[in-house]
Amino acid sequence: MGQALSYGGPVVMTWGWLAVSALNVTTALCLAELAACMPAAIGSIYVFTARLAPWWVRVRYGTCVIHWAEGQAAAAQRRTAGRWLVHAVLQPVRRLLTRRCTGPTGSPA
Question: What is the pLDDT of residues 58-98, one digit of tens each?
């Protein structure tokens, strides 16, 4: 971010962010249009892969790669939720427990 501010400045960063956001929205809309015509009740991610991949990828690797990526995403989501639990819930409890041991000025009671 330091280089972006020194070489382009906030104006270039703002317009770059807007351009990339517009392209991301375009990609999401295209994928949504493709996925809208596929059945969702029978494992939509696998049907999506099987219909859009070339036959040599579909037969050998398509659903295996998708299954692996889905598993990695689920594991990352669990790790993120665990980290949130530690930082958002247990840290305030720790602070309350350590505050009880000190006086109002922070020195031991």
Answer: 666 767 777 788 889 888 888 888 888 777 777 777 777 77
Residues contacting 16, CB < 8 A, separation 6+? 8
CB burial of 55-83 (b: ≥16 within 10 Å; e: otherwise) equals: eeeeeeebbeebeeeeeeeeeeeeeeeee
Enter the tokens of residue 31.
């994928």
Using alpha carbons, select from 106, 1, 29 the residue that is nearest to residue 98. Answer: 106
Phi, psi of 103, deg, nearest 5 = -80, -175
The packing angle between helices 44-52 and 63-84, to 10°, is 140
Q: What is the DSSP letter of 88?
A: I
Verdict on whether the full-model pTM lies above 0.70: no
What pLDDT sits at residue 89?
78
Q: Which residues neighbour 52 within 8 Å (Cβ) at sequence distance 6 or greater?
A: 34
